[in-house]
Amino acid sequence: MKNLLLTKGFFPESLLRPTVNYILQTQLPNGCIPWFKDGKADPWDHIEAAMGLSIGGEFEAAKRAYQWLANEQLADGSWWANYLDDQPVDKNHRETNFIAYIATGVWHHYLVSQNLNFLQQLFPVVKKAIDFVLRYQSPTGEIYWAVAEDGSAKKDALVTACSSIYKSLQCAILCAQELNQPCDTWVTAYQKLGKTLRHHPECFDRTWESKERFSMDWFYPVLAGVMQGKAAQDRIELRWQTFVENNIGCRCVSDEPWVTVAESCELTLALLAAGEHAKALSLFSWLHQFMDEDGGYWTGYNFRDKVIWPREKTTWTAGVILLATDALTEHSAASKLFIVHTELDNWSGQVEMN
Predict the structure, then answer these.
(1) What are the structural domains of the chain?
(2) Rounded (5°) CA angle 104-107-109
(3) How do strand 146-148 and strand 249-250 relate by DSSP bridges?
(4) Are 117 and 179 in contact (CB under 8 A)?
(5) Angle 2-262-341 (CA atoms, 0-180°, nearest 5)?
(6) What's the mean pLDDT when you consider all of the chain?
(7) Going by C-beta distance under 8 Å and a sequence separation of 6 or more, which residues neighbour residue 101?
(8) For residue 120, how many C-alpha atoms fall within 13 Å in the half-sphere facing its CB?
(9) Which residues of the chain have pLDDT under 50?
(10) For the stretch 189-212, what's the b/e string if a residue is b when 16 or more beta carbons lie within 10 angstroms of its beta carbon?
């Protein structure tokens, strides 16, 4: 197995240029980035791939990706769950964490590019999206996972999705502050969501089986900054042996012999956020074995049967490979976006830390 060990200040430009190109070559002329050639696109994974373009210095392509979202945004601020050939595949639901993620992508691109005009142009899109999502925050703080075609909430919540929204709310607030726009209601919603994620597990998985078998339920609160410091380290330690396969990666679910490159990269970011640099470096070093000759990375690997599965190389996997590489090497101005989380009490006197 060929490991890839990274150090601060040494971004492997030549090695990862094909990975950037893989995303570029899959992007459609209108800016949309599908999962792979002739595949579907969804707002969250589209943004993950776009962030990879920003890290790769492909600013115009990244801007076209965000402009595609601006063009497709519905009047109420949302997007459908997925698209194929510019048409929504399924209008049964719109996922709130997919919709909120535009704030993370826009703030990320601004950090990398320092293009204030881009931020000004996209902020109305961010505002409409975040305002839509917050309409579905329950009185107890969690945000319902999806919205039906008629606008009614699907009234349950996911730890992973709400953690992602928590990070997106932080980014939306930072966008607003950079532009001197009011955001007090966002700060209040952010604080309320964080409090629920930290202290009220009963607000999640109320109508279906617990999602704790999924690794993202384990590490996303750390990745998103819900849990920091000792609490983050304790959470990582709690299920490390359950999810991490030595020299391979992070399992998707605890009871299946399947690791995914994207979740391994996200866990790398969570480890860095928790101050576990050595573990992050080691975990990420195992993933280079899943890079194909065209620069794409295979989505997953079944280590019991020793086979790549599924036989697909997704653009969002390429995107998060670039995000993790950036974080480990501190290459771009956005390298600490998922590592250093702005303290709540820097924002509002109303905000509590617990």
Answers:
(1) 13-346 (1.50.10.10)
(2) 105
(3) unpaired
(4) no
(5) 110
(6) 95
(7) 43, 44, 47, 164, 168
(8) 6
(9) 345, 348-354
(10) bbbbbbbbbeeeeebbbeeeeebb
- Tokens encoding 54: 């920003």
CB 265 within 8 A of CB 55: no
CB 191 within 8 Å of CB 228: no
End-to-end Cα, the chain, rounded Å = 44
What is the token pair recorded at 136? 């579905």
Give the C-alpha separation, 76 to 125, whole Å. Answer: 10
Residues 6 or more apart from 65 whose CB is under 8 A from it? 27, 31, 32, 33, 46, 47, 49, 50, 53
Token pair recorded at residue 31: 């800016």
Residue 169 has a pLDDT of 98
- Would you state the pLDDT for residue 347? 52
pLDDT recorded at residue 4: 85
- For 83, the 3-state DSSP assignment is strand
R_g over Cα of the chain: 19
Q: pLDDT of 57-91, one tens digit each?
A: 999 999 999 999 999 999 999 999 999 988 999 88
User: How do residues 152-167 score in pLDDT, each as one tens digit?
Assistant: 999 999 999 999 999 9
